[in-house]
Design a protein that fits this description.
Blueprint (H helix, E strand, L loop, with lengths): L1 E5 L2 H18 L4 E4 L6 H12 L9 E4 L1 E3 L10 H10 L6 E3 L8 H14 L5 E5 L20 E4 L2 H7 L12 E4 L2 H5 L4 E5 L5 H9 L17 E6 L9 H9 L8
Parallel strand pairs: 1-10, 2-3, 2-6, 3-5, 6-9, 9-10
Antiparallel strand pairs: 4-8, 7-8
Length: 258
């Protein structure tokens, strides 16, 4: 795992956007795995700005989102389909985009079809991830199988509470989601994980320097051959080897830089 420590969330988002820009320049028809939440908002703004400036072209790219709330239509303002349209897809056109259907009548079948669609597209070239404060990725809560596939998950009380500010009341927060599994995520050719703020410091350290365990699903990315964890100074606060990670990044050869 490559650990990149930047001064703040802005610099970290710029680094991630540059990685995706390079991916699209080298392979315009890339399959992109995308995430939602507050962490990638600036990243999506930067991608859209790069598109407007002619620095990248996503018109041949295909996207797959990690997850969606069960019970919400794509038109619901708090659905992840609405999120993606508002923050990226209305500003940076792509060839095709895919988001799990939160209103599907047959969840197991839909999940199997979502996995099949990823395979049919050639697999995900680069997957964007946010890191939950409890170490989850996607909606793979602590205890999730590290070999799991796209499936239904019940949210923990902590995640429901974290998501409550986005809804009119806590009672309106869905209790179930469809999410890519940890095993699905690990099959992406490259992963980029973002984590910002002191509240993520414990999860960052557990993910990167702790044991690989289902209780910290993101720790499975230690086994990934091409994963970059990009954090700000606050999120790096509990890392034991942060000076070493800075040294490695500062001495990267030019051909490895985005």
């Amino acid at each position: 795992m490559e650990i990149i420590i930047k001064r703040d969330a802005e610099e970290a988002s710029l680094e991630a956007a540059a990685i995706f820009r390079r991916q699209l320049r080298e392979k315009p028809e890339s399959v992109l795995g995308l995430a939602t939440g507050s962490t990638p908002l600036r990243f999506y703004e930067l991608l859209a700005a790069m598109g407007r400036a002619g620095e990248l072209d996503a018109s041949r790219a295909v996207t797959f989102n990690l997850d969606e709330y069960v019970g919400l239509s794509a038109a619901h303002p708090q659905s992840y389909a609405a999120y993606m349209r508002a923050h990226l897809l209305d500003h940076l056109p792509v060839a095709r985009w895919h988001i799990p259907d939160g209103q599907t009548a047959d969840i197991p079948r839909h999940c199997a079809e979502y996995e099949a669609a990823i395979r049919a597209a050639g697999g995900i070239d680069i997957q964007l991830l946010g890191l939950g404060s409890d170490g989850h990725i996607g909606f793979n809560e602590p205890g999730s199988s590290l070999g799991s596939r796209t499936r239904l998950k019940t949210l923990t009380a902590r995640t429901v509470a974290d998501n409550a500010p986005h809804f009119a009341s806590p009672a309106e927060v869905p209790r179930h989601v469809i999410t890519m599994g940890v095993g699905t995520i690990l099959e992406a050719r490259r992963c980029v994980v973002l984590a910002f703020g002191k509240q993520k410091a414990h999860a960052v350290a557990a993910m990167a320097e702790g044991p690989v365990t289902a209780m910290v699903p993101a720790s499975a990315l230690q086994m990934h051959p091409a994963c970059a964890l990009i954090v700000d100074e606050a999120a790096a606060g509990d890392l034991q080897r942060r000076d070493y990670y800075r040294w490695v990044y500062e001495n990267k050869p030019a051909w490895q830089r985005p």
